[in-house]
Amino acid sequence: NAVDMVALMDALGIERAHIIGHATGSAVATVLAIEHPERLASVVLSAGWARQDPFLRRIYTLRRDLLTQLGPAAYVQASTVMLYPPSWIAKNNEALRQQESQQLAGFKQDIVLSRIDALLAFDRADDLARIKTPALIIAAEDDFVIPSERAEDRARRSPGSEAKFFAGGGHCFMQVSPREFNQAVRPFLEQHTPAN
Question: Is the pTM of this model over 0.85?
Fold first, then answer.
């Protein structure tokens, strides 16, 4: 959470930082930008949302039910199908199987369930206008888990933010298209890096 992030920055002696938050990390980064703007040089909010809606409630309730009723293996395998585009899965199937095995080896069901509950409860939409930190909101138009309309809503509610949309890549577009992701994010970070 954001309190832990500030404590970590304090422990490492980091006064200000660029923060990139993806999905759950986007929720944490949103809270940081609202409650601790002095700690951020900029914030990138990737595949995030500010308030639940019927679709997001359905998908996270489904993911919770998959985990509790069918178990971790079904949850992890279904997540892969939800997170990546079909063509990318086909090209990277063996690597994804290895990734799933690694995830299952350290899987903590209670932590995953508490994270899902936190995501279902997350609601900071009315606070987005308070974000004064330079913000880049990014999303993929084919993200099944967090539809790009959520990013459009965030951009409307966050005056002064920039928005960038990728045509494809699914929920994990930074993994599917790392070069394009870096080309979108790096100039933004450089623009908001104070000169020494």
Answer: yes
